[in-house]
Amino acid sequence: MFTAGPQETSMAITPAPSSVGSSTLVTVDIVVLVIYFILVLAVGFWSMWRTKRSTVDGYFLAGKSMTWWPVGASLFASNIGSGHFIGLAGSGAAAGIGAIAYEWNGMLMVLLLGWLFLPIYISSGVTTMPEYLQRRFGGKRTHLSLAVLSLFIYIFTKISVDMYAGALFIQLALQWNIYLAIVLLLVITALYTVAGGLAAVIYTDAAQTAIMLAGALTLMGFSFVEVGGWGALMEGYSQAVPLVRVPNSTCGIPREDAFHIFRDPVNSDLPWPGVIIGMSIPSMWYWCSDQVIVQRSLAAKNLSHAKGGSLLASYLKILPFFAVMLPGMISRILYTGAVMIFSPPVKSVIKHLICVCAAGFLCLCWWWYLFCGFPSSRPVRVASSSSTSSPSAHTCSPPSPSSSSWVASGRELMRKYAGRPFNF
């Protein structure tokens, strides 16, 4: 997990404070939590009556009446959640500031959304991204497949993580059963989302953005006061070695490049070529074509407000480094004795890699079928360059044995899709 240099014998070990593990809430804490939940529900119900939900645009796009600031705040809140507060803080405590590259890469991609992709999306008049693909390529197979794939991706990679992280916080703070906390989160979210549509989601996102940033920046201030400033952070982090770690190894020793974003291209955990090139590809998909993100921008009243929302979200993406990651690094100094080093078994890693490779192979076969099709004896309909007047000119004869392979069938259908213009 850690690849820092050899351990020095002069490193100081800070004992864990006696307060670690204490999670008793006083009356003020409980009142703040109750006020928070009431505020979120109040904003959700207020937005229900503020917008017209009787039409498709009114329900799914908030009537296309949103100004730039709730759009930008909602873009930020849709990306930053409980998973980020736990994950970024943990990554900072474990390996330094390298993981913030994911957030700062998103700063550029959300601007790319506003200035390159949104003009096309808005001019097309679509409501969802699957609908855009249907208009662009025709047919319902691509439309349905993207909708189903997006649901699976969000259920197993986004919603499940955020539900667990949020429920884990409620369990630690209120000592509730974690399953009861999950049910509570689902009920509250579904209550204002289903009843209020996108308008309720955007306004509650804006309220939660203000709450999250206020609380996180306040915590950052207290953290720096406790640790003694930036210099103490730089010095103390390199000496924060946990009491319990794997013997005769560098596991648990702070990385030498902990305060570097661009790290060694061969031996580091986040090589700089991957940060610049490899990270940009999934980031562009997420920020520029993901339904949850793009839907917020489509709710803007015009293109100028949509661009303003992207610009605000880009500025807000600077803050997680200061508000989330740095307090996580400071926690390693203040609670060194509580840091736990975990090294996954080799069998678990191999099993995970096999599952990922198998899933990737199945997705590859699926998309090949969607865009290229399997060989068939049925006629294939393609655009004819010689005639467009008679219906028979659009129907080819059954493919010959030499052209019935996957490659020939794929090329034929790709020529069909590539030559079809936008039908807006």
Automatic annotation (TrEMBL):
One GO term describing the cellular component: apical plasma membrane
**PROSITE patterns assigned:** NA_SOLUT_SYMP_3
Q: Does the keyword Transmembrane helix apply?
A: yes
Keyword check for Transmembrane: yes
**Where in the cell is the protein located?**
Apical cell membrane
Protein family membership:
Belongs to the sodium:solute symporter (SSF) (TC 2.A.21) family.
- What the protein does? Involved in the sodium-dependent cotransport of myo-inositol (MI) with a Na(+):MI stoichiometry of 2:1. Exclusively responsible for apical MI transport and absorption in intestine. Can also transport D-chiro-inositol (DCI) but not L-fucose. Exhibits stereospecific cotransport of both D-glucose and D-xylose. May induce apoptosis through the TNF-alpha, PDCD1 pathway. May play a role in the regulation of MI concentration in serum, involving reabsorption in at least the proximal tubule of the kidney.
Instruction: Please identify the protein, giving its name as recorded.
Output: Sodium/myo-inositol cotransporter 2
Q: Which organism is it from?
A: Oryzias sinensis
- Mind giving the lineage of the organism this protein is from? Eukaryota, Metazoa, Chordata, Craniata, Vertebrata
